[in-house]
Structures are given as structure tokens and as C-alpha cells.
Design a protein that fits this description.
Radius of gyration: 20 Å
Helix content: 25-40%
Largest sheet: 4 strands, mixed
Strand order of the largest sheet: 4-2-1-5
Structural class: alpha/beta
Shape: globular
Length: about 280
């Protein structure tokens, strides 16, 4: 990936070249041979011996070879993101916001497909807008496992480039004049709807009081999408150690426990990995 970006970015038009360790990149193992070692213990592997049915939906990015995929890392079931489009590029239900100034975006639009897989199956096109499809699968998973302990890792691809919204969400935000910002906001709208649907599914199945729900993100918004205020008031972006890059929401909801366990409401900052200790 670094070598490819070097070709796009270091094209002679930039004030500063992108620097990377060319020797390390040349000596790195093939991409397919890179991933999470099986010796690492995932949260799914820690929960399975306790009787939990474990499920993964969405982004993985911890390796695509058979020994790295979710099914080899403690998950009983997996619906996995295989590329990166939220809808086919030419779909009448999609509104695309391409970034002609960004080499990463050019690479993504040229290579990405609208594809997912189920338990290491052949790739297939999901039904509908990707965020809604993953939400549909999450609701089904909750309903199917309501009578036994389960762990569901729902890793949405949203919000991520390539910026691509559903037309319905885009049309609902007509008050936003900037087209790129409107697409970005529409993608957030779909994610917000997903959270609501998951919580409602837990309530409909009588599980909302006894289920711990954790919501977080992997990083702040990037600085290469042409939206300078998306991390405001924090400085910096994804790929930096400024607060705009690493300070993200971390919410935990457990109604049946949080009202009775001393210290359950914790002020201050935490790391996402702290969830492993709960």
C-alpha cells in the first residue's frame, strides 16, 4: 500500500515528498501473509469458553488468509467486509463525493468493489446500502441468539472513504449546502440509525437491561477529505497523535448493572482496549 501511495503522491507537484522506509517495505512479507498471529487471544476467544456464541459483522483488516480471518480467531460466525464501496459506484441509490485532490481517494475508487463474504464464502454483493445491510445482519443475529449468551462485534465501515451516501439519507439533509459535507453527514445519519436499530432490537427481544453495549471508533476523521472542521475543536487528524487523531467517543451502556454497581459511571479518559478488562 505504501509503495502504491508513493506513486500517487510523489508526482513532482508536492512541496514535500511522502517519506517512508523503502527497504522495510521491500522486505515486508506479501500482504496476504500479514495478519493477527493466532497466538494472540481475541475477546471472542476469551468469551467462547464462558459459553458465548461469538459473531463478527463488518470491517476486519487483521488479515485475509485463512489463518487470520474472524472464523480462525474465535468467531463462530462472520459477515466480513471484503472491499470498500457502500453501493455500486453507478447505483441510482448512491450519491458519491469523489476527491480529485487526494491520491488515496483516487486509488480507492479505482480498486474498491461492493462486496462482502459470509464465513469465508465467495464474495457477493450485499443487499442495499452497506451500513444498513450490516445493521440488518446485526438485528438478525440478536433475534437468533436471544436465548443464549452472545458476543456481537459490529464493526461498521462507516464513516470512511470513499465518501458515498445513500440517496435517501442525502435527500434528507437538504439544508446542508456543501455537497461533500452533505454526503459525509448522510453517512453519519446512516450510522446513527444503525445504533438506534440495534438498541431497539435488544429492547424488542427483552435483552436491553442485561446487555452491555460499547460504542467507540478507531480514530478521528482524516485530514485528506477536504473538510477542515470535522474534528473541531481538536487539533490534528487520523494518522496523527494529536487529539483530533486519537480522541474518540467511548460509550458503555448496561442498564441492568450501571445503576447498582459502585463506580460504574467512570469520569475521565479511557482507552478502547480497556473494554477487554470489563
Amino acid at each position: 500500500m505504501t509503495r502504491i501511495l508513493d506513486l500517487f503522491y510523489n508526482d513532482g507537484t508536492r512541496r514535500r515528498e511522502m517519506l517512508f522506509d523503502k527497504e522495510a517495505a521491500a522486505n515486508a512479507p506479501p500482504f496476504r501473509e500479514q495478519g493477527l498471529p493466532g497466538s494472540e487471544i481475541t475477546l471472542a476467544e476469551a468469551l467462547k469458553p464462558q459459553g458465548y456464541h461469538t459473531m463478527h459483522i463488518g470491517k476486519w483488516h487483521l488479515g485475509n488468509a485463512p489463518e487470520f480471518i474472524p472464523n480462525a480467531q474465535g468467531f463462530d460466525e462472520s459477515v466480513m467486509l471484503e472491499s470498500g464501496l457502500f453501493l455500486p459506484e453507478d447505483s441510482p441509490e448512491a450519491v458519491n463525493a469523489k476527491l480529485p485532490f487526494d491520491p488515496i481517494d483516487q486509488f480507492l475508487w479505482a480498486r474498491m468493489q461492493y462486496a462482502t463474504s459470509c464465513n469465508a464464502s465467495e464474495w457477493f454483493e450485499p443487499k442495499g446500502y452497506l451500513t444498513d445491510f450490516y445493521t440488518d445482519e446485526a438485528v438478525k443475529a440478536i433475534e437468533a441468539n436471544r436465548n443464549r449468551p452472545f458476543f456481537l462485534y459490529l464493526a461498521h465501515w462507516a464513516v470512511h472513504t470513499p465518501l458515498q451516501a445513500s440517496k435517501a439519507d442525502y435527500d434528507a439533509l437538504s439544508e446542508i449546502e456543501d455537497e461533500r459535507l452533505r454526503v459525509y453527514a448522510a453517512m453519519i445519519r446512516a450510522l446513527d440509525r444503525s445504533v438506534g436499530r440495534v438498541l431497539q432490537a435488544l429492547k424488542d427481544n427483552g435483552l436491553d437491561e442485561s446487555t452491555l453495549v460499547i460504542f467507540s471508533s478507531d480514530n478521528g476523521a482524516p485530514g485528506y477529505i477536504g473538510l477542515p472542521d470535522v474534528n473541531k475543536p481538536y487539533r490534528g487528524w487520523k494518522l496523527t497523535y494529536f487529539e483530533g487523531g486519537i480522541r474518540v467517543p467511548l460509550f458503555a451502556r448496561w442498564p441492568g448493572k450501571s445503576r447498582s454497581v459502585p463506580g460504574a459511571i467512570l469520569p475521565g479518559q479511557r482507552a478502547t482496549g480497556d473494554g477487554y478488562l470489563l
